[in-house]
Amino acid sequence: QKEVEQDPGPLSVPEGAIVSLNCTYSNSAFQYFMWYRQYSRKGPELLMYTYSSGNKEDGRFTAQVDKSSKYISLFIRDSQPSDSATYLCAMSAKAAGNKLTFGGGTRVLVKP
Amino acid sequence: EAQVTQNPRYLITVTGKKLTVTCSQNMNHEYMSWYRQDPGLGLRQIYYSMNVEVTDKGDVPEGYKVSRKEKRNFPLILESPSPNQTSLYFCATRGGNYGYTFGSGTRLTVV
Questions:
Q1: Taking CB atoms and an 8 Å limit, are B41 and A104 in contact across chains?
Q2: pLDDT digits over A33-81, tens only?
Q3: Mean pLDDT over the full length of chain A
Q4: Which of A28, B31, B42, B52 could share a disulfide with A104, CB 3.0–4.6 Å?
Q5: Out of A46, A90, A99, closest to residue B58 by CB
């Protein structure tokens, strides 16, 4: 069983819809949770960074962490075709000097 | 601009021919790491370095070497590449209370 599980998709939504992504994990030591966006032929870029449980909002993006359920989510409101990409969740036990463990990524397609 | 620079972007080589993929960062980060990304397997860590002259194995180190002689550079060395090392490789750095910054990737094909 993988430490971090993520549905590979693809997830296809019409423009303007809410995109809902999630990951589950098994390691209770994880405290730092991230979402990355990766366009084709590019490196992943950091979208959201949260510590411990709770919600964090940044523009159209909202990240949620539920440590009791070992479940994290990313919501994208008012989705745009430019949001079409692969979204990777990542997590670590420490802030720095510690590796990130990634989910396999969910491919998202936002259709005009 | 904060950057992680990898070279080359694309590389086709033959089995057994030694190669080096370079990685350089301008953020003065101590932590650097190499990942490979494969369909269905996601990003897997190959090696990492906590600081100059300090390196350690990640999850899939077999067939790879690294060195960290100076803070900004962290080359990935394949002494005798094999076809199962055909992959997309990413160098990444991490500084402070933040996530990784990734390079643009190196697509390696070993024939």
A1: yes
A2: 999 999 988 899 999 988 888 899 999 999 999 999 999 999 999 999 9
A3: 92
A4: B42
A5: A99
Taking only the tens of pLDDT, chain B with its 111 residues reads 889 999 999 999 999 999 999 999 999 999 999 999 998 788 999 999 999 999 999 989 999 999 999 999 999 999 999 999 999 999 999 876 667 899 999 999 999
- B30/A103 CB distance under 8 A: no
Quote the CA–CA distance of B59 and B40 in Å, as a whole number: 16
Candidate from A8, A34, A42 with C-beta closest to B99: A34
Joined tokens for residue B50: 């906590």
If you search the block for the tokens 């730092």, which residue do you land on?
Answer: A32
Smallest CA-to-CA distance from A112 within A35, A9, A16, A41 is with A16
The reply to whether omega before B8 is within 30° of 0 (cis) is yes
Residues of chain B neighbouring A34 (CB-CB closer than 8 A): 99
Question: Which H, E and C letters describe B30-96, residue by residue?
Answer: CEEEEEEEECCCEEEEEEEEEECCEEEECCCCCCCEECCCCCCECCEEECCCCHHHCEEEEEEEECC
CA count, 13 A, side-chain hemisphere, A95: 7
